[in-house]
Amino acid sequence: MNKRHRMKTYFSALCLTVLIPVSHAENWGHWRGPHFNGSSTEQNLPSEFSKTNNVKWGADLPGTSAATPIIWNDSVFVSSGDDHAKAMRALCLDRKSGKVLWNQEVGVGYNLDEKSNFASPSPVTDGKIVVFYYGNGDLAAFDFTGKKLWARNLQKDYGQFAYQWTYGASPTLYQEKLFIEVLQRDQPVHGRGRTDGPIDSYLLALDPTTGKELWKHVRPSEAKMESHEAYSTPIPFENNGRTELLIAGGDAITGHDPRTGDELWRWSTWNPTFITHWRLVPSPVTGGGVVLVCAPKGAPVYAFKTGAKGKQEDSVIGWKSSEREVTSDVATPLFYKGRFYILKGEPRAAISRVEPATGKVDWTGQLDTRIKIECSPTAADDKIYFQNFRGEVFVVAAVDQFKLLGTIQMGDEGDDQLRSCIAISQGELFIRTGHKIYCVGNGMKVSAK
User: Fold this and answer.
1) CB 253: neighbour CB atoms within 10 A?
2) Euclidean distance between CA atoms 174 and 179, whole angstroms
3) Do 146 and 293 fall within a single domain?
4) Range of the domain at 314
5) Of 291, 320, 349, which residue sits at a domain end?
6) CB 433 within 8 A of CB 55
7) Are 66 and 389 spatial neighbours (Cβ–Cβ below 8 Å)?
8) CATH of the domain at 387
9) Dihedral, CA atoms, 178, 179, 184, 189, nearest 10 degrees?
10) Does residue 337 form part of some domain?
11) Distance CA 396, CA 370 (A)
12) Which residue from 421, 423, 400 is spatially nearest to 339, judged by alpha carbons?
């Protein structure tokens, strides 16, 4: 090769390096993704797909679950009920093929009500271990080969849960600690709840390598009856050198020191008249310098100023929504590229794009569905993904004007309680329906499992 040819080849390669963006693959190790806000930096994601188009594989699952799939490199972790054995199972699938690599039974029992089962909490991983948690209190950690590292049951250790419905909070792995919240009513309900002592709500930190308690923080509340109950998840937040865990429920938002569990700040209440049935489902989300919390049952969304210390008055509120469209009873909002996206799941489903600093609503888009939506939205590549109870997936553009890019039916006949969020990792979407999980990406061909 002569010098001129070598220089031409060098400059061609240089141009390719400059012109072609480098794709950064992100894992999805937590229910709300790598940034704890529902977003990912993944690119080249599809807006058009079906059960046979742009599907890499589809795999059968032993039962239903509201849990979101968790992905780390080539491992896909799925929590599932077992319809036939009436048990809870922990599965690991190969991301490239959909093959089940291991399938472990964690505990027996299935549900307490017809709306959900014990497999509602999502698993969590830090890339070294994966932890599965279930609504009956069963908690177990595995390595990536499927070897069980430890197991325990929180109801046996800390008392029977006192919930109107089935417990469903997901665990959080952060700073080498496993965090679990139990925000429950302070008296037995439907025969559930300890009778040999006080029923406390608490935040728990465990050693993820052993399952042993590091600390337990009792979280008081002035709420009444069911308004004590929350199905939210601890969300880490770092701001101006301070790290805290955000907890929403019991008519209050609190921030906690992850080293000790100590309460750093508190605001209450979105329920000044002490309504007794305002259980809370959405988790907090942060972005744009504020902490966002959704009050239940069509009540406003609240944005709080950061850096607060101690018990707060209403002056800590940056803004609250005034429009009935901007509310969420179940879905946790998304923060993506400088905006919050708040999904109202019923009665007229709509999604709103909101400016964090002021609460200004950029737009609200109505969704043409009469089917309830309780799935929390996720986003990457300027697209937002979520599904309704029957597995109809909505793809919305994360741009300055509302644009519905598509609706795709991924659910099967009989699916009518789907809540699992759509996980995003390695340039692919992972969609959990009733008894199926699909891996979706551009230019893929279906391979049924």
Assistant:
1) 27
2) 8
3) yes
4) 88-320
5) 320
6) no
7) no
8) 2.40.128.630
9) -10
10) yes
11) 17
12) 400
Pairing of strands 263-267, 252-256: antiparallel
- In the DSSP assignment, the letter for residue 316 is G
Rounded Cα–Cα distance for residues 113 and 133 (Å): 18
Q: Which of 126-130, 210-214, 414-418 has the lowest mean pLDDT?
A: 414-418
The string of DSSP letters for 18-67 reads HHSPPP----B-STTTTTTSSB----S--S---SSEEEEEEEE-SS---P
> Do 337 and 410 belong to one domain?
yes
Residue 189's region, left for phi above 0, alpha for psi from -120 to 50, else beta, is beta
Under 8 Å between Cβ of 146 and 132: no
pLDDT at 15: 38
Q: Which residue has the tokens 């609706």?
A: 407
Whole-number pLDDT of residue 112: 83
* Domains of the chain: total: 2
Tokens of 16: 């390719």
| Strand, coil or helix: 226 | helix
Q: Which burial class, exposed, middle or buried, applies to 432 when counting CB atoms under 10 A from its CB (0-12, 13-18, 19+)? A: buried
Strands 310-312 and 263-267: parallel
Over residues 379-410, the pLDDT tens digits come to: 999 999 999 999 999 999 999 999 999 999 99
Average pLDDT over residues 436-449: 77
pTM score, two decimals? 0.92
Strands 87-94 and 75-82, how do they pair? antiparallel
Query: What whole-number distance in Å separates Cα of residue 270 and Cα of residue 233?
Result: 19
Other CB atoms within a 10 A radius of the CB of residue 150 amount to 17
Which uninterrupted H or E stretch holds 315?
A: none
117/225 same-domain check: yes
Element (H, E) at 328: none
Shared-domain flag, residues 310 and 401: no
Size (the chain), residues? 449
Contact 76, 39 (CB under 8 A): no
Residue 117 has pLDDT above 50, yes or no: yes
Cα separation, 177 vs 173, whole angstroms: 6
**How far is Cα 75 from Cα 95, in angstroms, rounded to an integer?**
6
User: In this structure, are residues 440 and 423 in contact, taking their beta carbons and an 8 Å threshold?
Assistant: no
